[in-house]
Amino acid sequence: MRTFRFDDGLRAEVTAHLGRFDLRRAADPGGLKRAAVAVVIVEADAPGEAAFLLTKRTPKLRAHGGQWALPGGRVDPGETVEQTALRELHEELGVLASTDDILGTLDDYSTRSGYLIAPVVVWAPGVTVTPNPAEVAGAYRIGCGELFRDGSPEIVAIEESDRPIIRLPLPVATVNAPTAAVLFQFREVALAGRDTRVDHYEQPVFAWR
After folding, report:
1. Taking the model in full, what pTM does it have?
2. In the CATH hierarchy, which fold is given to the domain comprising 8-148?
């Protein structure tokens, strides 16, 4: 399995990959509500290795309680998706980052629950993660190399849709779309430098609410 060093070289490489990427951002979300998530690159528990932050939602949440997710939420009036991602990152995990820490963005991903998600890639060195118990049951540093493990992603056909679902086996759990779709594109575009799209991947039926 691949490993990634958490250093200036990785930051420059991810920035270059995202800068070359032909981003697809919807000018009109239609009936969808705009949202943003932060794909946060941090130092792993193993010193010197790069990781990303993954959260488990508190079961108390009315929507998506107990699910695995990236820090994020709905875009407030007057906000950009970048501002939303940074605000939610601070509110959910206590991580204060600035626009200078944003390396780029990934494609919009529409969800069955009515959101159009814009993923924002953030570089966050030396952070202490303090989960907000009202929203987050736990926060985990997952090595970026885990996204490249054999057999990942898992693409599975379902009767309810003509699109296959995507899921990623990670050390803490097998994660489904939309989080799996966003992380797979992060792997492909930001880490591997490949122009890979994910809007054709479905979410499991339990997420259709």
Report:
1. 0.95
2. Nucleoside Triphosphate Pyrophosphohydrolase (3.90.79)
